[in-house]
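batch job 7 of whatever, protein = Homoserine O-acetyltransferase
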Amino acid sequence: MSVEIFKYNKPFELESGKQLNELEIGFNTYGTLNKNADNVVWVCHALTANSDVFDWWKGLFGAGSYFNPDEYFVVCANILGSPYGTVNPLSINPVTGQPYYLSFPEFTVRDIVKAHSLLAEYLGIKDINILIGGSLGGQQAVEWAISEPAKIKNLIIIASNAKHSPWGIAFNESQRLAISADRTFYSNTPDGGSKGLKAARSIALLSYRNYKTYGITQQEDDDHITGNHKAASYQNYQGEKLVNRYNAYSYWYLSKCMDSHNVGRNRHGVEKALSLIKARTLVIGIKSDVLFPIEEQQYLFRHIPKSALAELDSFYGHDGFLIETEALTNIITSFFKTDVKGKIIELQRTA
């Protein structure tokens, strides 16, 4: 399905006080808004994903899946800084007539939410029945549920947190160090920093999976091998795969955006901010997640008023939120079947 473009032709002010002279947002919709306008499912995507949620979240979204277009009006919008239809560092700066590159203003998760709120208004969406996101998408979802609490009826946060941790920031900084070590990053060309981006992706993968994942999927069958290991080939392959579809500048800015996530900023602290959420909330954590440890989801559960918690066993680590669609479907089904306020949803899955 082709991406639609929403154009906001007024200056868009960022949380920093800087502004974008023009704002474009790429988005996809599936299904039809019903007569009561109460069937909206809004998906907040993660770091390098795009607005085609039926492509990257198969098994949870799509015909025959839990979130199907026959029942729901599904919206997924590309985030600020990402190169899939929304204004980003490779976009043309209308002031200079040249791509922004490193002159693109830094932005926050709150800026992403503010932009998507404008899109929702454009689409005639007053209420969002279900707001769902994982990882950086979950950060957007919890931020939106705080900034417009009356608008969000049900909230699903997967493998995410209330503020980005020092551990997560350290991972992101390590990736930025890899990008900036590639001197071409400062060349202001569309493929600038490609080698650094490849290395950054390799670092990121170590946080998306874990020791057990690699032990099962990349184990050597031959005890005599001394080089050309599966794990090494896998890191190279995944790095090249991202380079072929992404750019170092978007990755750089979005990693900084993730670091900015803190719902307590200018709201008298994180716990006070979380208490503002009115949505019926499902928090899902993955026990093997290295990047967003289960303690972060337990914290959300304790401090969001009408919330339930599910802890998922998966050997895939953080990436389990994209892979374990059958388990997620079972959890979400259980959540909507009963009054689960303050409940821990028991669903165990072993590798």
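notes: The chain has a mean pLDDT of 94.
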